[in-house]
Write a structure and sequence with these properties.
0% strand
């Protein structure tokens, strides 16, 4: 497949800070799940925590990359309106996170769960928290020069936030109230708006 889509200079607006912000926004799901997990287990299991963080980071990075390569198959369709695509996708993903974060109720720990760090359980959670990254990967189609760096950053941020979430849940327990998804949604919408404004007004 020929990657003939060369990014015009005025489209190079996906700077490293925007990538980091997108990574933080996507990682908020991982943070929320990890906080909940820490609240339930009440004790730091280092190996299991590292395994969970690694899987969360791996799936976030992998899904972003899959989304990017999927987007390449119809890049000719989106290249004239890529700023609208980026804004639309980030607004939809951010709006979904906002809605879910606002409506989500505190859930009780599953007392019947015998192995909260089982591989099937962790992979299921990693997959669930990385679905948004799949769609987000499409917005990197106009920026092939930074895709690998972006994927690495997104994966590392999710890994770090997952470990941090466990520590927060263990340390503060149910007294810690965090609408992480709400914050993540706001960040993603803001980045989408930034991309649209910079392209539309040539900033």
């Amino acid at each position: 497949m020929s990657q003939s889509y060369k990014t015009p200079s005025f489209l190079i607006i996906m700077d490293i800070y925007s990538v980091i912000a997108i990574g933080v926004g996507l990682a908020m799901d991982c943070l929320a799940v990890s906080v909940s997990k820490g609240i339930c287990v009440k004790k730091l299991y280092l190996r299991q925590t590292l395994t969970m963080a690694f899987l969360f980071g791996l799936f976030q990075a992998g899904m972003t990359l899959i989304g990017y390569f999927t987007g390449l198959t119809f890049m000719e369709t989106i290249k004239k309106s890529d700023h609208w695509v980026a804004f639309g996708l980030l607004a939809l993903i951010g709006g979904k996170m906002l809605f879910e974060g606002i409506k989500k109720q505190n859930t009780e720990c599953d007392q019947t769960e015998t192995n909260p760090f089982g591989y099937i359980k962790l992979i299921s959670l990693a997959l669930a928290t990385s679905i948004d990254a799949l769609a987000t990967g499409i917005i990197f189609v106009p920026y092939p020069q930074i895709i690998w760096k972006s994927v690495t950053i997104i994966g590392l941020i999710s890994l770090l936030f997952s470990g941090l979430g466990m520590l927060i849940g263990i340390r503060f327990g149910k007294g810690f109230h965090l609408k992480a998804e709400v914050l993540g949604g706001i960040i993603l919408i803001a980045i989408g708006l930034k991309i649209w404004i910079e392209h539309s007004f040539g900033l």
